[in-house]
Amino acid sequence: MALLASAMPLHAGSDPVIAVETSSTSLVFAVRENKTVYQLYYGPRMAADEFAAVPIRDMRYTAGFSQAYPATGGRFLGEPALHLRYADGTHNTELVYDSHTVSRWQGTVTTAILLKDPLRKVAVRLVFDAYPAEDVIVEHTEILNEGSQPLRMLEYASGALSLRADSYLLSHVHGSWAQEMKLESEPLGKGVKVLESRRGTQNTQCANPSFVLSLGTEELREDAGEVVAGALAWSGNYRLAFEHDVEGRLNVICGIHPFASAWPLEAGEQFRTPEMIWTYSGTGVGTASRNLHRWARRYGLYGQGAVHPILLNSWEGAYFDFNTQTLLRMIDDAASMDLEMFVLDDGWFGGKYPRNGADAGLGDWQVNRKKLPEGIDYLASYAHKKGLKFGIWMEPEMVNPRSELAQKHPEWVVRSPGREIYMERDQWVLDLTNPRVQDFVFDAFDGVMKLSASIDYVKWDCNRPVFSFGSDALDDQDKFYVAYCQGLYKVMERIRAKYPDVLIQCCSAGGARVDYGAMRYFDEVWTSDNTDALERVRIQYATGLIYPACVMGNHVSTVPNHQDGNVTPLKFRFDVACQGRLGLELQPKYLTEEELALVRRCVASYKGYRDLVFGGDLYRLGSPYGSDYYGQLYVSEDKSRAVLFVYCIRFNAMGAEGHPFRLQGLDAGRRYKVTELNVDRSCWWGDGGVWSGAFLESGAFNPVMGSLYSSAVFLLEAE
Ligand code: GLA
């Protein structure tokens, strides 16, 4: 139970300023005479009282633009956080302050501001959970229909933020399959810029519900300047709108996408939005990322950043072409490489329509006895005997037309009456808005878990978006997109209640479901099907702006790379994949003795420092965009240990003379022993020596990285 510091609602008048505070930041609201609540400030922590004196001049064109939660109606004509349509067809809502409460629970301070429309009897509660140590504020909104008539929510954002700066640089990611997370930074001109997904499932395939705003600067700076970063915890359609108004404010509205999603609220009903996670940094995006990562590890991730086993995944090594012998051999090889888990990917199931390719079997989650006559338990137990954990692939939200399930339950497929059910990857989407389908998906997961008591990990895939949406189970199709995501979360709640300790990876044709909503249930994400290490440097960099390394599954695969044909050295592939949960995804029997020796060496060293990657603070050394060199280091919270990764990602003839990296995050006054890992001869002259943090941060660390795909890993240990 929350311990209420101020159980009594506070009313403005005596106290017109409401400050949501973390250790270093303040988010300030003020209640004005007309009882409108404005948001006046988000920045370095300061006493908020003086904001009571700030005049609000509701200008001709932008009246109400900096309201705490602007609603369509009154004089407000901007991008709304809330847009309601009432039973009589009218659209005007005017929210005024009612009261607010402040409560504390284990260090988290919750401020709830209650707004009401007295005419329409609508109540809106803005809830801010402040995490002081992490400088993170998590906001959600509760909308309650206190009237006697139903209404429709046409727009219902999780949160709104109004910023004031000379200029705004928006950094966000875009992409597609096998090239997710391409970072783009663009100055925001006047008007509205929108980041969104309308894909139903696969919400992060083409963009991510997150951003970094750099204030008053033209570049995304790592260690200087004001930055506001945000992420929406929602795995469905989303819309993040940035309205640069004619007076120079930037009004940010983030939430569920209103596209085709007018949500009905019956009299007395309430809707709770997903959470919006905000952080402010006065020292560049580096601090903003670390704030989010720390918050995520402590509060935002299912597994709270626990270290996960090093695995061999069967996909790129075997695809659909395997039998028991193939897999036993791979398990043997994984054990001999000192890995910790074997994951059987796609292709192990199917009844009448066996899954020997992507065109059949999804939905029929029984073992293909032709391929695997001894069954799954035989393999899983074998792995356990060899000292490995065992994992298995599923795609429970999907069905192939060539399956017994599609024949038995055509009404469970997402479809629109009279329309073609479009295919992608030869499959259809199951209608998770339907409680029976939710039961089926839960039972499918449960059934797979019952195949063996030795299943430790499930890779949950989702390989296509929704087209021509429609549900046989819904009488109101406007509910489809929101109810789908709610349905997914309901299933995951049930799965987590029964299987709290099973590791579950969130995969979606690579990185098409990478968001803090999914991460409440899943232990890790697969950031991309593109396993080319060069591409992964870029993908992991951009993912890491918002999400911590501990959730990223990274695999070493073969060359030429199966997605883009690139050829990189095995060591480079390892040095990239070790920044997260390491895995291998190749056929080990084709590795030479020399390669195997390097694998064992890299695996052994990783085991020694991975706690830093999973739990340390990330410091980026530059950016892989436009640079020839890039580095990242992870520093323990007490700054006694760090692991440093450096790469040459484009040839630079000067590299032969040593490229200076200025390390960060160390204790300047302490001395660190610096040891390069996985090599006999180091690329840095100072290797093996003991150097002060100040010296290492001076640029004196200049490893020789003369050839493309040179890479190195260094361990730093304080004396
Ligand atoms: C998706 C995943 C891959 C693999 C295949 C199997 O593409 O992203 O990692 O599991 O499905 O079909």
What does this structure look like?
The strands form six sheets. Strands 1, 6, 7, 8, 9, 11, 12, 14, 15, 19 and 20 form an eleven-stranded antiparallel sheet that branches. An eight-stranded parallel β-barrel has the order 21-22-23-26-27-28-29-30, surrounded by five helices. It has eleven helices and 36 strands. The longest helix has 23 residues, at 593-615. Residues 1-7 have low confidence and may be disordered. The protein has 719 residues and is α+β, with helices and mostly antiparallel strands. Alpha-D-galactopyranose (GLA) binds next to loops. Alpha-D-galactopyranose (GLA) binds at residues 315, 345-346, 393, 461, 463, 507, 509-510, 526, 529.
Give me the secondary-structure category.
alpha+beta
Percentage of residues in DSSP E strands: 25-35%
Supply the number of structural domains: 3
Bound ligands, named by name, code or SMILES: alpha-D-galactopyranose
Rg measurement, Å: 26 Å
Summarize model confidence as the mean pLDDT: 96
Assembly form of the protein: single chain
Q: What's the story with the biggest beta sheet?
A: 11 strands, antiparallel
Could you name the CATH homologous superfamily of the largest domain?
Aldolase class I
Specify the CATH class of the largest domain. Alpha Beta
Number of continuous helical runs? 11
The tally of strands reads: 36
Distance N terminus to C terminus?
A: 45 Å
Assign the CATH topology of the largest domain.
TIM Barrel
Gross CATH architecture of the largest domain: Alpha-Beta Barrel
Enumerate the spans where pLDDT stays under 50 for 5 or more consecutive residues.
1-7
Fraction of helical residues: 10-25%
Indicate the overall shape. globular
